[in-house]
Structure formats: C-alpha cells, structure tokens
Amino acid sequence: MATVRLTVDGITVSVPVGSTILQAATKAGVDIPTLCHHPDQAVKGLCRVCVVEVEKSRTFQTACTYPVAEDMVVRTNTPAIREARRVIVELILSRHPQDCLSCPRNGHCELQALTERLGIRDVRFPRQERALEVDTSTPSLVRDPSKCILCRRCVYTCDEVQGVGALFPAYRGHESAVVPAYEKPLIDVVCALCGQCIHACPVGAITERDDTETVWDALADPTKHVIVQTAPAIRATLGEELGLPPGSLVTGKMVAALRRLGFDRVFDTDFAADLTIMEEGSELIQRLTTNGTLPLITSCSPGWIKFIEHFYPELLPNLSTCKSPQQMFGAVAKTYYAHKSGIDPVNIFVVSIMPCTAKKFEAVRPEMVSSGYRDVDVVLTSREVGRMMRQAGINFEALEEEQYDNPLGLSTGAAAIFGATGGVMEAALRTAYELVTKKELPRLDFEQVRGMARIKEATIDIDGINLKVAVGHGLGNARELLERIKQGTQYHFVEIMACPGGCIGGGGQPIRTTNAVRERRIDAIYEEDRRMAVRKSHENPAIKQIYEEFLGEPLGHKSHELLHTHYTARDRV
Fold first, then answer.
1. Options 53, 90, 146, 367, the catalytic residue
2. 109 & 244 share domain
3. Domain encompassing residue 68
4. Same domain, residue pair 532 and 433
C-alpha cells in the first residue's frame, strides 16, 4: 500500500495515500477536537472546529477533510489555531440555550465537553438564541430544535444509514434549521422512531421521552404491583451506562439494582423471547408446509415494523404475526402471571427496560391490549433506568449478583442472543431444526448469520430441506433486502432489526454508541449465551409449563388471542 510521510506537531508519521490530516494526527497520538465529525459517517467539514495550520497554505484547513501530502507539515496547537477554535465554539454557544444543568445530555454533551476542553469561560458574542417550539408529538422522541448546532449528523444517519429521510436541512444563514418534511411534527412523518438520531446528535437536540417520573410514582403507589422486564441487550449495556467498560455483562447486578429500586418482581424479557421462538418457529414451519406467504419476516423490532408500514405495506403479509417479546410478556403478565399470583391485573403495572426508543411507541399501539388491559404500561430505555439508579444512590459495582424471579424469569441462551443482529434467526433455527427433524442439532452455533456485515445470507440444511435465510440490520439495509425480495430473490425466512448491530445498538442505549462499541456489546451477548445452562428455547422448562398450564400449544387459540397481532399500512409523507 502506497504511503505518505508527513509531520504533525513535530512527529513524523506514515499513513496510506488518501488519508486525512485527522487520521494522520490520530496515528501520531495527537487528538484534534471535532464536533460535526463522526467515526461512522461520511466527512462533512461543517463545524470547522478541527482547523489546523498547514505549512505553505494561506488559510487554515479542516483536518477532517484535508488530504495529506508528502512532506506536509501540520501544526495543530498554535496560538492562532487555539483562538480560531475558541471563536468557532463561542459563535455556536452564542445561539445555543444555556440550560446545561437541566438538559438530558448534561455530562454526555460533546459541545459541553468541547467548551471545557478549549477553556472557554466567556462568550464574546451577543446572544442570538432562537426560541423554537419543542416537538413532543411522539411517545418516543423529543426534538428541541433550539439546541440544534446544524452538524447534520442526524440527517446523515436518518437518510444514509437508516434510509428513512425524516429529517432535512432547510433555509439559509441565521434561519438554517434541520426539520422534518414540511416542518410537520415527527408523529406525522415517516419517522420510524428508532432513535438512531439520538446517537448521532452531539448535543440535546433529540432525546428520548423521559418516563422515569411515571415509574417512580407507580413504585410509590401501595395499590400497584409493579413488575419489571429487562430486554436481552440490556445486560450487555446497562453497566456501560453506569460507568463500566462497553461489553460488560451485568445480569446479576442489574437484577439486584432493580430490586433496590423497589420493583415487586424482576422478570426477564428473555422468557418472552423464548416464547416468541416457539410461536414464530411454529409459524415458519406452518408456512413452509402449507404453501403460506414466504419469506416469513420477523416482527420483533418496532422501528422496523413502523418502517415497513410506511414504505412497504404491500409486504405486510410477509410479517410474522407474532408480537414482540416485550408485548408478549405484557400480555402474559396480566393473564397467566396474574392468575398464578392471585393479583387483580388492574393492579399490575408492567415496566419494560428496553434498548429501544421505538418500544415506547409500540407499547401505546392500540392493538396491544389483548390481555384486556394495556399490555405494557411504561417503557424505559437503558439511559433512563441508569438515571433512576443514580438518583437512588445505588452503588452498582458493589452489588452482589441476584437471580430473576419465577415463573417469568427463566430463559435460555437462545433468548439472550436476541440482542444481537442475527440472534433471532439463530434462536429460531435452533428450535425449528429440532422441531422438524426430531433430532438434536449437531452444532448449536449458526455463525453464518452472525456479525456486522450489512446483509447476511445462508442456506441451512434442515434434514434435506434447504432453508434460505437472510439477516439485515439497520433500516437502510432492510430497504435493500426488501427490494431484493420484490425483485424475486427467494428466501424462506428473513430477520430484520431497525438498528445497526441489532438491539445492542438501539436508540435507547448508552451514549456514545459507535460501531466499535457495538462489536464489544455483541461479543458480550454471545458470551452470555455460552454461559447459559439451556441454550434452546423449546427446552426452557418455564416455556413448557406455560403451554401445559395455560396456552395449550403454539399457534393455538389462546396463543393467537394473546401473542399475535396485525399491522397497519401508514401514509408515506
């Protein structure tokens, strides 16, 4: 590979031809500040915070865009450069709200960190703050355009990564803004509510809706029996939210911390993930044997569901009719669990800890009341429950590990891997293979469907049946996969997750979520699977018990009533 030698702050480095000054500086151990730059996005060069001096150049250059050249001499820390960066950031601050202490991104704000790094104590420019209306139209996201710094990272994520295009740059000069189509509220456009824009945003212009006070109120209400379920991915990310390294597995400590918050029972969404595999795996077998609509496409991800409702309603018959594990759990909690525990379901309050902002929208969908009540009362993201634990003064690292409560706390490794892209597919294959063949799998791991490749395809031999499967993660990849299906590519079973990396990269996960962080979380999820005593959903004794005592059989009348649903075509605005 051809390389270029240059000097950055007196340090000589060699980097590949085509590298930027920013990349060369990183190799030299020089940290150039950035704001609009994101490691997983295309270069934009909008904020100018990364300006540097290049010898023989008449003007400062942006390190994130400027290509290196042989014998180039770069200086990143001269008095003129420090002053230029301070001026740029002060101009941004002059029109940015000064409510840092009450902002949801306080302590996780890149602008705040940059201001401290540059030693800015005064803003020398007149205040030009704009009082713009906060968009609270969705149950998932809150958009505060007055805090937007016009970096367009959210625009890139929504358009280029997710393929949705719900946000656009508009107007010019002082009136410049990032807005939804026709400046409508988010609830009235094609937004999937996936929350990937939150991870892209360096400030507090887009955040999750905070429902923690509703949960505190429920926990303080003696008439309510408050139970909590934790999604598969949370065990690999909650520790990160509370200061541990990315990829830390904290299952037992998480259970202990939730008990200390005051929940009456701590249950596991993984139980419902195993239940989902029983229903969805049976649905796949049924469609294969009765010439049903194929490919069967998974329905666990609510952001993905809203996407297909907007953009590909003609493929809704391909969706599994299964509810997501979150909603299955809620329905079972207010029927089966209510009966077994002798508690009136009207007094049962179900809280979900989810990696996903779209789960908040899913919980309030009008279809999600098959128990006779709202299946799930409140959804909290990993960030929200982290805030609650800090408010409660819980020393998370010092906690002794505890176990989930029964009967809805027993799960398998197959359920744990729901948190990673390809996990639902792999869990379903483990069960479908054994249900069809009546034989034990020779090897449990289906590595063909693992990893961060955009779209993964495989052909699985199930006792002579060649099952063609595909996995896509991120809505931009989902769009490509659906176009393949429309053009005639033949699959039997397709898994799609709205967020890059799957649920471990969900919009409600700790900030900052990058592809490198996603990889570490995925490794943790598969480590959890390897640790489990039982690794196949159909071997979960609690699942066997609920079918014997309550549901009857997969796809039976009771299962259809409680665990299945339908989806709705939506406008494409």
1. 367
2. no
3. 3-77
4. yes
